[in-house]
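User: Sequence recovery, please. Input:
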């Protein structure tokens, strides 16, 4: 974790503010690639993840953009209303669970503030001469940050509800992509679900979520079985309705965490033995099948015990 100073804020669009952080001593910051995010630890005790959207070549600054969420639980509202230039924040990262993979072509889809990781991807793909197309959707044109920035680089389709009306033509956009293109999508859950439904081969889809999707049925924690976790010489019992992460904390084992919804990857931990019951929204099918790691905030165990690399 690093202690960084907020050195600049800039209004980008309706409800969106850009934050620029730097090391107070001017030291270089760890390198990052498009798709990476930071975890900001706010003075109100909350931790929130925000995608890096600046220039990866600039090792002196980290840039993120924060949209005010009308249903904010205290994260974005605190940033907009109380965070001031000159203040210090504890910052984790960068971490990247949404990295660009090698592909012959790319289809990029952003919804609202989901443009933040996508904008960095657009610039990287443009610089390397890759084949890409972007569909950027928003409720209003005034709220669409970075629209001019990405629009100047290549084939970008903007769909603002207050201008275009109706729903974006996802099917038409996807049909125009090469059959071997990877599709990267970041935005609200309805957009991610619609893209997955419209895509002929969902294995080509890479997504980043704002928050965990609503479960299709209520979770019945009473149906969970207790199991043990082994951390070195310590054995702890994880009871129904209590997460592995909570169990470890109660016994004084500190594990980094942030979203606690199974979407950010901060608490991902290597599994040395046992079979996890994966309940996250981040790991790929291949990663789940390997059982090499698990997200401690939501996942449980299919075996009587798990041995964790802690």
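Assistant: Recovered sequence (310 residues):
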């Amino acid at each position: 974790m690093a202690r960084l100073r907020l050195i600049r804020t800039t209004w980008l669009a309706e409800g969106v503010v850009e934050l620029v952080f730097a090391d107070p001593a001017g030291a270089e910051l760890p390198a990052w690639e498009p798709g990476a995010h930071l975890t900001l630890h706010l003075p109100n005790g909350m931790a929130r993840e925000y995608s890096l959207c600046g220039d990866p070549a600039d090792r002196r600054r980290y840039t993120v953009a924060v949209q005010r969420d009308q249903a904010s639980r205290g994260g974005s509202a605190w940033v907009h209303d109380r965070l001031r230039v000159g203040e210090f924040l504890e910052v984790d990262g960068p971490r990247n669970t949404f990295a660009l993979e090698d592909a012959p072509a790319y289809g990029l889809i952003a919804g609202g503030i989901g443009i933040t990781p996508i904008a960095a991807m657009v610039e990287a793909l443009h610089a390397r001469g890759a084949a890409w197309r972007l569909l950027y959707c928003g409720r209003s044109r005034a709220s669409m940050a970075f629209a001019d920035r990405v629009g100047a680089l290549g084939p970008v389709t903007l769909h603002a509800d207050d201008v275009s009306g109706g729903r974006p033509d996802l099917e038409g956009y996807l049909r125009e992509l090469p059959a071997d293109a990877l599709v990267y999508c970041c935005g609200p859950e309805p957009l991610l679900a619609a893209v997955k439904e419209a895509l002929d081969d969902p294995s080509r889809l890479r997504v980043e979520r704002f928050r965990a999707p609503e479960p299709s049925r209520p979770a019945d924690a009473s149906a969970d079985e207790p199991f043990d976790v082994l951390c070195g010489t310590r054995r702890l019992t994880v009871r129904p309705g209590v997460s592995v992460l909570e169990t470890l904390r109660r016994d004084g084992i500190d594990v980094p965490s942030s979203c606690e919804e199974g979407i950010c990857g901060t608490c991902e931990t290597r599994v040395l033995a046992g079979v996890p019951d994966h309940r996250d929204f981040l790991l790929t099918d291949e990663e789940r099948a390997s059982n090499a790691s698990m997200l401690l905030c939501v996942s449980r165990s299919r075996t009587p015990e798990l041995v964790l690399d802690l």
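The longest strand covers residues 2-13.
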